[in-house]
Amino acid sequence: MSRALDVVIPVVDIQPFLSGGDGQSLSDACKEVARSLQQYGVIIIKDPRVTEADNDVFVDMMERYYEQPNEFKEDERPELHYQVGVTPSTKERARDHCQRFRNDANMDMPVTVCPPGADPKWRYFWRVGERPAETSFASLNAEQVVPARFPEWPSVMDRWGSLMLDAVKATARMAAIGFGLPDDTFASYLEFGPHLLAPTGSDLSRHNAIGTAFASVHYDLNFLTIHGRSRFPGLFIWLRDGRRVMVRVPPNCLLLQAGKQFEWLTGGEVLAGFHEVVVCDATLDAVAAAKYALASLRSALRLTRLQVRRALTLESVLDVI
């Protein structure tokens, strides 16, 4: 049984940390970051350096990219294990966790079919952050892939990726303080890591049946994953007690999820929780609202050639290793 409950994830304003404060407000904020990661496996932050407008510029560009006919998306690098450039639909498949869910009566069951099929989403990998001068892992440090029809691509990707990476570093330091550790305990591991901006896109004009899994149930292997706010909801996470809940990110906020590296570094104090992205009622409500808004705009402007975009569920993700 899957309960799909709504749980209010706390929102932590990281301004006290960014402003260099050292009073009670900073202490409380750091403890709340640690508590949320411990209890939920996720944290929602408000970073004054990141605005909804920044997110919109990034998402708008990614929507235009994914809306292209497939023959124009010639940016895949399978010889590099898709670690840069685009990963086409049905190339990603989650590990089979079916038995684990069946064996734990306390865990809500996922909507993802068992065993999971290939995910219908597309993904684009773009490296962010400083690279090591020398490396033994060439595929993790390969040349960037810039789509030919998007001259603005590097500047948009670099700006959004830098904003999210800076937010992760600040949150990592706050989490360490909240756990009573030196503030660089986690952040020191992030230097020169193969951090990836990895926005996914799924075509809701084709894959719009309730229960369709765009990202089958899985946990992340990295340290932290940070998301911008999605225009089409559908992310569900599992809490420590096994409950499956929907995550809603407020405007001007960012969502961070703990991965396996965080779990290992904390000895299980923070768990890499399972999560899945599926089509649900809220997804279709957002699609309907988007179509209505476009229709209203067309009527108001009296345009005859306004092309209605396909609804894309677009999720911006930074995998921080």
TrEMBL record:
One of its GO terms (molecular function) is metal ion binding. Keywords: Iron, Metal-binding, Oxidoreductase. The keyword DNA-binding does not apply. Residues 217-280 form the Isopenicillin N synthase-like Fe(2+) 2OG dioxygenase domain. PANTHER family: 2-OXOGLUTARATE (2OG) AND FE(II)-DEPENDENT OXYGENASE SUPERFAMILY PROTEIN (PTHR10209:SF874), OXIDOREDUCTASE, 2OG-FE II OXYGENASE FAMILY PROTEIN (PTHR10209). Belongs to the iron/ascorbate-dependent oxidoreductase family. This is Isopenicillin N synthase-like Fe(2+) 2OG dioxygenase domain-containing protein.
